[in-house]
Specification:
This protein is α/β, with parallel strands linked by helices and about 190 residues long. Helix content is about 35%, strand content about 25%. It is built from 7 helices and 7 strands.
Length: about 190
């Protein structure tokens, strides 16, 4: 979260459309997406603490909820993940642990990166946060397989898809959990040039 706060507080990002790609696997989460009831309180609280504005939590929670204009389900089996008539191409695309979760192998990873990058205008940023060397994650007691992403794969495939990386940070895992087995993570920002 600190890395996202720093990235967005630089003033480098301009525009009105931010697309956030998250994986919602449980039926509870899908119901929340359908009703617009997805809870952002934990994210808002953490963002306010990082920004040193924890006393402004309620105001910022309201601003965040008003800023979310569309929640759209996507189908990774289709070439066009979402109907671009529903939302405009994004000025910034944030991908948080999605590519490895929805991909079975490297070919699938490349196809899904290509599909997600279609949601983004040229000349603007994609921000990717993902675990490295992860093989599974757990949600409500259910184990899900992931593509074992490695840092050289992500970097080379971004370049192959027309992105120029302008920030790359790998950090080691600091705590153990049975919920996932990643050994490190990457925070990457890149500009879509073509």
């Amino acid at each position: 979260m600190e890395r996202f706060h720093h990235a967005f507080s630089t003033g480098e990002f301009k525009g009105n459309v931010l697309t956030l790609a998250l994986v919602l696997l449980s039926t509870i989460s899908i119901q929340c997406v359908n009703t617009g009831a997805f809870g952002w309180s934990h994210t808002s609280t953490l963002a306010m603490e990082i920004g040193g504005k924890s006393n402004q939590y309620e105001d910022n929670e309201t601003v965040l909820k008003k800023a979310i204009t569309h929640v759209v389900k996507c189908d990774v089996s289709k070439e066009n993940l979402i109907d671009l008539l529903v939302i405009k191409q994004a000025d910034c695309l944030v991908i948080f642990s999605v590519l490895e979760a929805i991909s079975k192998d490297r070919d699938d990873f490349v196809r899904n990166l290509r599909k997600l990058s279609k949601l983004l205008k040229c000349g603007v940023h994609i921000i990717i946060y993902c675990g490295l060397n992860v093989t599974y994650f757990m949600v409500q007691g259910e184990r899900f397989h992931t593509f074992k992403n490695k840092k050289h794969i992500l970097g080379s495939e971004l370049a192959n898809e027309g992105f120029v990386i302008n920030h790359w940070e790998v950090f080691q895992r600091t705590s153990e959990s049975h919920l996932t087995d990643f050994d490190s993570a990457v925070f990457c920002m890149a500009i879509k040039e073509k």
